UniProtKB/TrEMBL annotation:
It comes from the Bacteria. GO terms for molecular function: oxidoreductase activity. One of its GO terms (cellular component) is cytosol. This is (Fe-S)-binding protein. InterPro entries: Cys_rich_dom. It comes from Pedobacter aquae. Pfam families: CCG (PF02754). Residues 3-84, 127-221 form the Cysteine-rich domain.
Length: 244
């Protein structure tokens, strides 16, 4: 299968190691991976701030870059959800719809499409898992505790296959970290308090790392950890799954 690797702009600029880990992991699992070099922002920041009419250029560019692939994969649930729900191209509606149907968040792709049963990963540390809101509530990567349904988590399913990894959870397993895109700018005090509450619960478990499927959440938590002088580190799930 031909896979187009979609790397969100903030990962490209601030956490390129996450994009590299995603690429290497997909290659290890037998995918023919390509990175379209003309890709740019998907338009989510503008749309979330109420300026969705201004995302037309982003949409057109995204369709031009990713139309040729069987699947599009990204290590970011929020960006994938934006494309799934909002990508449009008035001149090429069929192409836009095809992309919306074939774009996947990384763990969703590994579990649902590749059906990964074994990983060669090794990560001998205690890791706290953070459930990112867009992945859980938008992409349904995991169940929600407020619903009386069978519990599942695609990211956790993969992490449990990593040799040496000891997985732990905060008391309130699926509570928001407070990032929320531009929310963390307009409601800074509330955002920081939410992040501190998340970190406190992980620190009680004496974790070495906090991981998640969204770098945006990790970026928020990492900033608070560094300001606290904490030894706990933030790491994207792709980096763990690719670690040997």
């Amino acid at each position: 299968m031909k896979v187009g690797l979609f790397i969100p702009c903030y990962i490209d600029q601030f956490y390129p190691q996450v994009g590299i880990a995603t690429y290497q992991l997909l290659k290890k699992l037998g995918c023919d991976v390509d990175y379209p070099e003309n890709q740019t922002c998907c338009g989510q920041p503008m749309a979330n701030s109420g300026f969705s009419p201004l995302t037309g250029g982003c949409d057109k560019n995204f369709v031009a870059n990713f139309d040729a692939y069987d699947y599009i994969v990204a290590p970011s649930g929020s960006c994938v959800l934006h494309i799934k729900e909002h990508l449009k191209d008035d001149k090429n509606p069929e192409k836009a719809q095809k992309i919306r149907n074939n774009i996947y968040e990384l763990t969703e792709f590994l579990v649902d499409i590749l059906k990964v049963e074994h990983l060669s990963s090794n990560f001998p540390y205690k890791v706290g898992f953070h459930t990112s809101c867009h992945g859980q509530r938008g992409l349904h990567l995991s169940s929600m505790t407020e619903r009386v349904l069978p519990q599942f988590s695609k990211p956790e399913q993969l992490l449990q296959k990593v040799k040496g990894l000891q997985l732990s959870y905060p008391e309130r397993k699926d509570e928001c970290c407070g990032f929320g895109g531009t929310f963390c700018v307009f409601e800074e005090a509330v955002s920081v308090k939410m992040g501190k509450d998340r970190i406190e619960e992980h620190q009680k478990n004496e974790v070495d790392y906090i991981t998640a499927g969204d770098v945006s959440c990790l970026m928020h938590l990492e900033g608070i950890l560094k300001r606290q002088g904490s030894k706990v580190k933030a790491i994207h799930l792709a980096e763990i799954l690719n670690h040997e």
